[in-house]
Amino acid sequence: MNSLNIESFSADDFLNRSVKDMRPDEQPREKLMKHGAGSLSDAELLAILLRTGTKKLNVIETSRALLNHFNGLHTLIKKEWNELRVIPGIAKVKAITLEAAFELARRIQVAGLGEEIQITSPEDAVAYFGPKIRHLAKEVFLVGFLNNRKVLTGFQQISSGGSNATVVEPAEVMRQAILHQANSVILFHNHPSGNTSASTADIQLTKRIAESGKLLGIPVDDHIIIAGYNFVSLRGNGAFQ
Fold it and tell me: What pLDDT does 210 receive?
């Protein structure tokens, strides 16, 4: 992670170059209105959310400092509001505003799928669950409940752990499946490391849950590992054999 060094900014970067001093077509709000949101840089979009900068950095420069500190949007959107406050000029209200915007963006991705989520492939599953867990810094394990038409009727987080592992009991997975009257289930967990490779423990757990499901007549359709924007289907990799 890059450390923020205010001393590295030149005098020209300070308040004497405030956003108000820029030409109208360079100011983020005016630029958006004239050319559309797609014409703005990441820093300019963040600047609209932040609204104001500091005595030393205008709002665009504050946004750039934020992006530089967290190595870009990909890492920034994983942070909680209290982590964002390390940047001068990002007080509590601004930090909460940013976290709310990041969460809204994730929900918008899911909202585009419609109200009835039918899961008949790993791609269907990742389209819905990916935005929910791909950015988490700790590993979580979810079970999705499907009816006889493979429509998602709900899901439950079974456990959460550290950055490398989480503890899951097959009995709890099946208990939740029974409570939700599931015809079948689909399993998910994330790898915060970004590595999609299934560990021996992942495969063994999958087999144990699948065996429990067979005994209860609740089949496990798949177990999907989501690592950032990549994923792997354990059924596709033969873990159910």
Answer: 96
